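Inputs:
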Amino acid sequence: MKLGRILSYSLPVLFLFLLPAFLQGNEYYLHVFIIIGINVILAISLRAIATTGQVSLGHAGFMSIGAYTSAILTMQFDFPTYGALLLGGLAAMAVAAVIAYPITRVRTIYFAMLTMFLGQVISLVVTKWREVTGGTSGLLNIHPLGTISIPGLITIDFSTKLPYAYFILFLVFVVLLFLYGIENSYIGMTLKSIEQDESLAASIGTNIANSKAIIMCIGCFFAGLAGSFYAHYTSVLTPDTFGLFPSLYIIVHVIVGGRRRFSGAIIGAIVLTMIPEIFRILKEYQPLVFVAVLLLVIFFLPGGLVGLPQTVRVEISKIYKRRAGNA
Amino acid sequence: MLETIKVTKSFKGLRAINSIDLEVDAAEIVGIIGPNGAGKTTLFNLITGFLQPTSGKIVFRGKDITGRKPNAIAELGVARTFQLDRIFHDFTVLQNVMVASRLYARIGFWEAIFHTRRYRTKYADVWEYAKKILQFIGLDNKKDEIASNLAHGHQKLLGIAVALAANPKLLLLDEPVAGMNREEIAVALEIIGKIRSRGISILLIDHNMSAVMSVCDRIVVLNFGTEIARGSPEEVKRNKDVIQAYLGVGKHAA
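Outputs:
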C-alpha cells in the first residue's frame, strides 16, 4: 500500500523530470512544455483565489505586472534576474493587497466585473506609459535568466530552452506544493467554508475580509511570478499578451479541468494548452475551440476532465441498471 | 451577560426594531416571540453584528459590542444559528463542526501550510473536540455523511453543533425547532436544556409556542419592532396584548 502510494507520486514526477530531456531535440516541443508550465501556475493560482468563491477576470493583468516589473528592473536598473523574478511576484502581490480589501467586499459577479476592469486598467497603463513600458511596441531584448554556476559542480546557462524547461518545472513544483498545502489544511477548509456560506463562516469567528485578501495576495503573487518568468523566457513583452482573453482562458482551463478538484486546474491547463498546438490549424480559432470545449464539458462532464472516470462509471452503471430493470 | 439598551434599527425610516431593552443572565434561556415581521431576526442580526443599530447600545459581559464585526463578536463568545438549514452543505458533518472550531483551534497560517508537528497535534485535537460536540448533540453516528444529505431535523441539530463549536457563552437560536416533527422537537429541546446546564445562556426565537413555553425561563414578545410584553411563560400566555397581537382581535375583526 505504502509502496504503491510512493510510486504513484514519484513516477509522474520522474516522468516529468525526464520529459524535457527527451524533448531536447525539438525546440518547439520544449516551448510547448514551458508554456504549459506557465499556464499550470496561472490556473492553479486562479483556482486558489476561487476557493473562497471569487472568480478573478483580471488574472492575466497580475501576470503582466510581474512581467513588466521584472523586465524593467533588469533592463533599466541592472537588477539580477532572480531577484527581479521574486520582485515581479511581490509587485503583483502588492497591487493585490492594495485593492484586495475594497474589492473582496463585493460578491461573485461584482468581484468578477471589478477584476475585469482592473485587468483592463493595468493593460491600459502598460499601453500608455510609453517611456517605461514601451507602449504598444512593447519591450524587446529582455535579459534571459542569469547563469547559475556552482563552481566545480555545474554551470547552467540559459541560452537554450532546456534550462528554462527545468526551471519552470521547479517553479511548478514549488507552487503546487505550496497551494496543495493550503488547500488540504485547516486553512483550506476555512476558505472553502467561506465559499459555501459567508455569513455562517463569519458567525463562527472567521474574518472574511482577511481570509479573502490573503488568498488573493497569494494567488496574485504566483501570477506575477509566472509573468516574470515569461518575460525573461520570451525576451519580448507586448501589452496584448495580457488582455482580457488570456484572463478568460485561465478560467476556462480551471473549469474544463474540473473546478472542484486540485488536479483539475492542472489537467485543464495541460490539455487546453496542447489542443491548439496539436491541431495547428485550430490555433487561429482558439476562442472558438475553447468555447466548444467549455460547452462540451459544462453539458457532459459536470466534474470537468478529472471527473471523467467517475462520469463514465456512473453512466455505465446506469446502463446496467436499465438492463436489469428490463430483464 | 447580554444587555441591549434602547436598541433601534430603521430601514429607510421604517422602524424594524424600536428601542428594545433586553437582558439575558448567565445560564438563562430567554425566548423572543412575535408574529412574522415583528423584528425578531433583525434583533438577532443586531446583536451578532450582521446589522448595525441606528441607535442604542449592545453590551456583552460588560463590553460595548455595538457596531463590531460578526467575527469579532463571535470571538467574544456570542454564537448563533440561522433560520432554515444554514450549514456548510458540501462538507461532512464532522468537517462542519471542525471548521467551526476555529476559535478553539487557533491554527496559524504557516504551520497549517507546512503541516508542522504542532499543526498536526492541534488538528488531532480539533478532531477530538469536534467529535465530542457531535456526541453531545447526538450526531456522532452521522459524522462522515455529507451535510446536505442529512434529514432536515438533523441539519437543524448540526446547525446548533456548528454554533456550539465556536465555544460561546451566549447562544442565539433562530427557530431551532421549525419544521421538526414531535419526536425531533423533544430531542432538540432536551439538547437546548443540556446546553444551558453547561452554563451557556440562550436567546431563542421560535413560532412553536409549546416548545418556547416549555423551555424558556422568560419570554419577550415583540410586535412591529416594539416590545409588547415580557415575563414568565405563564404571564405571557395570559397577557391580553399578546393574545391580540397573535389573533389580530380588534384589528381585523369584521
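Remarks. The longest strand of chain A covers residues 148-150. Strands of chain A lie at 148-150, 154-156.
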